[in-house]
Amino acid sequence: MAIGDTLLIFDPLAAHPPATNFATLDLRGDFVVLDFDASTNESAQFHAVVPSHYKGGELRVTLTGTSSTATSGAAKLRVELTRIAAGDNLDSLPSADASADLTVACPATSGLLVVSELSLLSVADLVAGDILRVQVTRLATDAADIMTGDWELVAVVVKED
Amino acid sequence: MALSVALTQLIDLGALGITAYPFTLAGWFRVPNVNNLVTLMGIGNSTTGSYHRLIFLGQSTKSAGAVSSITSTATASSTTAMTPGQWHHVVGVFEAANLRRVYLDGGNVGTSSQNRVFDGANQYSLGSLSSDAVEVAEAAVFKVALTAGQIAMLAAGMSPLCLSVFAQLAAYQSCVRRLNWPGRGPVASAASAPGVAAHPRVFWRRNFGSQALPYRLRGPFHSEQTFFQTAGPQAGQQLMAGASGGQMAVAGVAAGAAMLSGEVQS
What we know:
The complex is a heterodimer.
Chain A: E1 6-10, E2 24-28, E3 31-36, E4 42-49, E5 59-67, E6 74-84, E7 98-105, E8 114-117, E9 131-138, E10 151-160
Antiparallel strand pairs in A: 1-10, 2-3, 3-10, 4-9, 5-8, 5-10, 6-7, 6-9
Chain B: E1 2-5, E2 11-12, E3 23-30, E4 37-44, E5 51-57, E6 63-70, E7 72-81, E8 87-96, E9 99-104, E10 107-112, E11 123-126, E12 134-142, H1 148-155, E13 169-173, E14 183-184, E15 189-190, E16 195-197, E17 210-211, E18 215-218, E19 226-228, E20 238-240, E21 262-265
Parallel strand pairs in B: 18-21
Antiparallel strand pairs in B: 1-12, 1-16, 2-11, 2-15, 3-8, 3-12, 4-5, 4-11, 5-6, 6-7, 8-9, 9-10, 12-13, 13-14, 19-20
């Protein structure tokens, strides 16, 4: 398969919310979104089986979102990737294999979509057939997060680089 | 985003076609800190005045209740209390005239066995019947008695749409910011717009996220319109009409409208 092939696509309805501090479902027009709070670090988790055309390359994660109300500032986001494979215990999952932070500038008009691409992430030993967990967190308590109101996640895409 | 509903925003869905026991009322609710009985959801008979409801017993034990009122009330009360301001999952299983159960957060079961013969229902309402607003999400009415296992799944956060008895849903409202998105059963309406509140923890899918799978075409193939490029970089390649070197034309796919990336085995 070619470089840049899309491996996984997640929409907000695919989220598996963690037990606490989870991003909440909301609607923006006709789009389902996940609201990430401005004062508490909230997360959304997505899981998928790595498809058979994955060839072991680095992963490029793209987040598409917007602001609920804000028209200035920036939200700080973190993406963590975890390989879950045969032998792993679902009751005590391994810690993240790769992580990257990103500061997303708020759009000048609330509702305008912002597509943000993280730096390449490498997940050791990841092969087709493994489960990949993608966790998205808004680091609302980080000093770099200066956007008021919720950040709304619309889509997550994982490509092979 | 859930909905906050008091009497002035009461959500009305009309009749659900429930004509007999058993049936189940279920939903997520966040009750106010009041010392009053607060209705959460229910079905009723406007002619006789009878009803079957989920309630918050704020005036007494603070527990959740499943009540059938036909001439007089019969209430099953949960064994633990609801905490105002926190999301709780409440289910009322109205299994038979002499058996109704209430579940709070997947357990804490209370039972009532007083006899209340079903006399019909032509109304379904969601939300509080007083000025004490209650927050509502993932409200569902099933035309069956849910099992304890199914109720545990709902309390763990599974959407009613994910249950195997999905086909028995008489009505469902997610209450994500507005009504009828998505909705199942009668179209819901409210006298005035309900308030909006943060949604509880809910899983909407039983399956994993989407894989972007390549198309895999297996041959052998037969092509009736082919030609050989005699010059240029694709010289010597066999081309199919409408496709360039290394690509394959597929009937019904317009040029530039779709990209089929994947293996072609012939």
